Amino acid sequence: MSARPRNLAGVITFEQVSKRYPDGTLAVDGLSLEIPDGATTVLVGPSGCGKTTSLRMINRMIDPSHGRILIDGKDITSEPAPLLRRGIGYVIQNAGLFPNRTVLGNIATVPLLVGMSKRAARARASELLERVGLAPELGKRYPAQLSGGQQQRVGVARALAADPPILLMDEPFSAVDPVVRTELQDELLRLQHELGKTVVFVTHDIDEAVKLGDRLAIMAVGGRLAQFGTPAEVLEAPADDFVAAFVGRDRGYRALSFASADALPVHPEPTVKLGEPLRGNGWLLVVDDTDAPRGWVNADEHPAGQPVRQQDLRLGGTLLAPGGSVRTALDAALSSPSGRGVAVDAAGKVRGTLRPGDVFGAAERAATSGSTEAYYDEKQLTATEHAELTAAEQGADRLSKDGR
Amino acid sequence: MNWQWLSDNSADIRSWFLAHLYLAGVSTVLGLVLSLPLGMIAYRFRWTYPPLINLAGILYTIPSIALFVLLPGLIGTSFLSPLNVIIALTLYTLALLVRVVADALRAVPEDVRLSAQAMGYRPLASLLRVQLPMAIPVIGAGLRVAAVSNVSLVAVGTLIGVQQLGQLFTRGLALSNYGAFYTPIWAGIVLSIVIAVAFDLLILLGIRLASPWQRVSR
Ligand SMILES: Nc1ncnc2c1ncn2[C@@H]1O[C@H](COP(=O)(O)OP(=O)(O)OP(=O)(O)O)[C@@H](O)[C@H]1O
Ligand SMILES: [Mg+2]
């Protein structure tokens, strides 16, 4: 997929847009909003506040009662709605796949509509299948033969098939279990990093919004825009009581996601290999042959000199990887039986551990100084800029130091 | 069973069988072909649904014999023409299937319909290429009912003199004047069943070919 020119990538402008349904419901009330191109904007708010209505007005599945919507400065009513929609990807909650078409058939839908040859559309569909992390053999299946998470990936692939500059997503991940949801979110972040689309994402989950969004548009019931800003701005300075209540009590903790933990001192930690005899006392970190952490063992409860077995381990716990946030570091410390959070390198090898005191200190500094700049720097890079940066050695260094 | 009688009359029986096959087959196909656009109209323009469905319901309650007799007067066909049977049975098939088609289209899940719209299908294209293919199993089930009922209704055409397997029943009745002679009646029943089963299998095969996604195992 070729990178799009930066100057025409799908800026969406709402100008005083209202929507009143025939039954009198005012779903959206005087919405004015400029959704930046090449970034993810999340519409977030309680049920019934007009998120879906706003989203569907962008591709004209719903027509505004008042106001107008522009894409790159052009009124969206200036071309026939079906043509407009072919340039805008759309993903919904249950994927909405065509049950009577194979996975490849589903993905090839828009390429065929825009006049691509059958062969080219199929090739394109296979390419996208791979891009969203699905095995090629799934291409011949029907949607009913896929798991919910796989269906959702196909939904994303189908929406991206004609390489539209804009991608609309309406609670795409809310019908899958939390583990799969996290996977899909990570996948979307990765894809967005490569593609740099203008993504408009609807959710009522503030955590999801903070994780995925470069910008949040917080909507209140009655279709009012309560605040528009970066996740850090919204969490640190809620515009009003509604926003403060909506982003919730955990918002201080959430805000730690924006502070980099890369400056935290990592202390050397003696390790013992799985299957080798145990020496020492207290909690010891157990690693496998590749030096990846496997868990902790309490030497005081373990017969000295006996090999450490899998069943002796206390498993789990958060690991801090390069680019991790203070929130992750804090969780690493809190979830470790020894109180020492495990830090790993990019390859997953143990680097050492974090001292709880250091982590709490970092959390306190982050809370008082609002050290969020590093976070913006990285998140606002466009795909192109990112590519340039990665090409330059020093750019890559900076990313891993400042990363989220 | 009097095999001698059967072989003596085999030429007649064969031509009645073929005529029966033709009359039932043609009216089923015509009824289907006409019900598709009408059903789509009833689905697409919601206000047309109640009048169309009610009209179809009334049509369906008119006894076939009445329709056979009335048609020549109404549309000027000749009184003994097989065309009367074809037109009447086409109308019955149509009456039955309009509702089936409209309801089957309506049963397509909302999110599928909306995603077709969001992909950029025009309304007619979406109807023909998304909703209709998904409605095939349901429409096919309705068609099976219509086809089998047509096979039995064709026989009523005997009363207005149309040549088909129904002749075997009047023949059997006439020959039973001097003691029961059921051979023609049994032959008529068996051959009707053969036609009905053949239609049924053909339609089933069609449904399977047209909707491979229906038999995938999860
Ligand atoms: N077709 C419609 N006719 C009348 N009212 C509608 C219609 N669609 C939505 N509404 C109303 O408009 C308001 C906004 O609906 P919308 O679907 O945009 O909310 P939402 O933010 O997407 O909610 P959710 O999080 O539950 O999906 C709600 O009060 C809803 O009941
Ligand atoms: Mg909604």
From TrEMBL, chain A:
Pfam families from the UniProt entry: ABC_tran (PF00005)
Keywords: ATP-binding, Nucleotide-binding, Transport
ABC transporter domain span: 12-247
GO molecular function: ABC-type quaternary ammonium compound transporting activity; ATP binding; ATP hydrolysis activity
Keyword flag Nucleus: no
Broad enzyme group: translocase
Record-listed E.C. numbers: 7.6.2.9
InterPro entries per record: AAA+_ATPase, ABC_transporter-like_ATP-bd, ABC_transporter-like_CS, P-loop_NTPase
Gene3D superfamilies to which the protein is assigned, alphabetical: P-loop containing nucleotide triphosphate hydrolases
Family: Belongs to the ABC transporter superfamily.
Protein's recorded name: ABC-type quaternary amine transporter
Automatic annotation (TrEMBL), chain B:
Membrane topology per record: Multi-pass membrane protein
InterPro entries found in the cross-reference section: ABC_transp_perm/SBD, MetI-like, MetI-like_sf
CDD domains in the cross-refs: TM_PBP2
Subcellular location: Cell membrane; Membrane
Membrane-spanning segments: 20-43, 55-75, 81-102, 185-210
UniProt keyword list: Membrane, Transmembrane, Transmembrane helix, Transport
The keyword Transport appears for this protein: yes
Pfam families: BPD_transp_1 (PF00528)
Similarity comment: Belongs to the binding-protein-dependent transport system permease family.
Entry protein name: ABC transporter permease subunit
Annotated source species: Nakamurella aerolata
